Predict the 3D structure of the following.
Amino acid sequence: MKSRSRGQVRIIEAFLAVLLVFSSFAISANLTITQNTTRHYDLTSVGLQALMKLDSDGSLGEYIDDRDWTALLDTLNLVVPAGVSFNLTVYDEQMQQVNTDVISNGGFSSQETAFVEYVCASRGSVFHCYIVHLYLGVAA
Amino acid sequence: MKRCKKNFRKNSSGQLLIVAALAIAILISSTTIYVYELSREINNVESYPINDFILALRQNTKNTVVSSLSNASKGGEKTVLTTNLNALVQAFRSLHGLETCHLTFTALNNSNYDSGIWLSWTSNSSGISSAYTNFTLKVYGMETNIAEEHTVNVTTTVTINGFYTKLGGGEKLVNLTCAVYNEGQPALAENITLFYEDLGSWTLADSSNNLLITDYGNGTYFLSFTISTSSDVVQVSAHVYDLRDVFVQANTTCYEA
């Protein structure tokens, strides 16, 4: 009787040991999932850098001043990395939408999306300040 | 004694198993946490957008100063710089970021600069259009506490020098060398227009004067034109727009070579 109950205790102990090891694996797996949030920053950074590249020589403000949405879309297609979808909206200082055409390279089918809000000061002799909203997604 | 020891070892072997398992679990967890923290730190440095945000803000302050100088150099009020920068500051305040952004500016005021703008077009052989502003940026947030200062200096300088040679019949051939600089570095001009003084009034030099402009591609331009005047000196004025649409006027007096 004593040796049988001792055997059961051993089984429980072994079970507890296995549970301990596996729970550590489970916690570790959860940690790696939360790392995905940092990739969100990556996409935000990609968007910001694309807009800054366009803005570095004043092109972004010039396209908006000229209402040349086709040229803006074409240039964005060049500066945004392949495999990233985008949708850009331009607002004036009163948050009234400026762009009359859709400035986008396709739909968003990805769970991973990012939003970039960018202030664009135009270099034209008549000063305009625009707020640019850029939505980015990883193309599936 | 030996039996007692053996019994103890037998009884405690299960507990040892749990202790060993606990040690392994702690090892696995701590290794994973260490690797995670390490990768998160690298990610923060590389991709946290606050650095990009500051760069974007600097870019916009420069664009605003360029726009204001362009406006002021074309006859706009010198206060346009302050007005435009206030609009920019207001736009940044309205951003829906996590951090609180506080941007302040001081337009330079001294013997040359008035409200951050300096237009010097009257001195002989050179003209300057310049804007100068100091910026202070403070960004407060959960993980961020940044204070940085930067200066935006947008200066377009044009130098012009030349002489004339007599062609006969009262005609003179005027040869000029014009150089354009942005912040002291050679820069290209968008447009150059030449005027010469004839009988007290400024006249446009054009194709009727056989105007020839040679662009060396390095910010230096050779200009020549012919005029009919009895004057011993020829006053020339170059009106230059650089690629940023900033206007500069430079005057020079040409003597016979």
In short: The mean pLDDT of chain A is 83. The interface with chain B takes residues 9-10, 13-14, 16-18, 20-21, 23-25, 27-28, 31-32, 35, 38, 41-42, 44-45, 48-49, 51-52, 55-56, 58, 61, 93, 116-127, 129, 131 of chain A (CB under 8 Å). The helical segments of chain A are 2-34, 36-55, 59-65, 69-79.
